[in-house]
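Appendix B: a complete holo record

For completeness, this appendix reproduces one full record from the ligand-bound portion of the collection. The bound molecule is flavin mononucleotide. The inputs are the chain sequence and the ligand SMILES; the output is the full three-dimensional arrangement of the complex, encoded as structure tokens. No fields have been trimmed.
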Amino acid sequence: MKRKSVRSAAVSLRVRLGRLTLQNPILVASGTFGYGAEYARLFDVDDLGGVVTKSISLKPRPGNPAPRIWETASGMLNAIGLQNTGVEEFLRSKMLFLKKLTRAKVIVNIIGERIGDYAQIARRLDGVPGIDGLELNLSCPNCERGGIEFGVNPRMTAEAVRRVRKATRLPVIAKLSPNVTDITAIARAAADGGADALSLINTLLALAVDPESWKPRIAPVTGGLSGPAVKPVALRMVWQVHRALPKMPLIGIGGIMRSEDVVEFLLCGASAVEIGTANYIRPTAAPEAVQGLARYLKRKGLRSPGALVGRIQTPARLRGIPKLVASRRSGSGR
Ligand SMILES: Cc1cc2nc3c(=O)[nH]c(=O)nc-3n(C[C@H](O)[C@H](O)[C@H](O)COP(=O)(O)O)c2cc1C
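The structure of the chain with flavin mononucleotide bound, as generated:
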């Protein structure tokens, strides 16, 4: 009998992310892709693995005063201030485009100023046609706790996820803040709260100064750093969380510009990725990354992105994944 060559096998980009199945592992990140419709003139948004919306709050938020964006070396500092339409207007107007997507998943990113807000928005979005999952932006100041970000405290993280979990049947993705000492403690808390998947990272708290005027570059003084400058931090955190929670599906985010960056995140343990700042530089970065990943897999003789997940070749003493899991993984996608 003639043996089928592995190299000639067709590539499928399909990935599982907990309860979600994505046609490919490339999503676009919250706050960098509007509500999807803005990009429809440039390419077929339905070709993406998914669209993550701008963060939605209970009530509309005007955002921070300008200037609120500054370009840094290999990155971008932003302090938009979570400007958004609020959940009711989102459902009335922004879902009109999003509900037409049939292949790309629609993930609504939500924020709360109080822990109860997250659950209230989740309840409102539960059962809305066209919404496939929720992503919790935990990088929001908790008004009830002196403005400390939910995502820097394990107890607040677990509680926010637990409340949302109870309020909805939708898959719940907890988006982690990198502004912590031990990302694995926060990841475990989100898992304990019942998260279906974790996405990481949000922006890194940062500051830029004008040496002439001695003033901060952006009006709110500090902001969130994103773009290629943060990629090594994001990779390190994805790797650490994957080692700590090997069964938890992860979405890697941070500085992804092209398909090679996607591969790095998959190798570190992500099952999917979100592309953010790159959308501002090259609006077609995400569909190009989909094509680039398919070419990469073909060149390597791999049949699916799953064959890369967690396969970083670290020294044996650093491998946190039990042998059994590692060997089962390696067999699955080739
Ligand atoms: C201008 C801008 C606005 C953003 N707004 C949000 C937001 O509303 N909610 C959120 O969870 N993340 C937001 N983010 C963070 C991104 O989703 C992403 O986590 C981060 O930028 C890292 O990815 P990147 O380096 O590919 O941009 C924003 C990022 C930028 C640059």
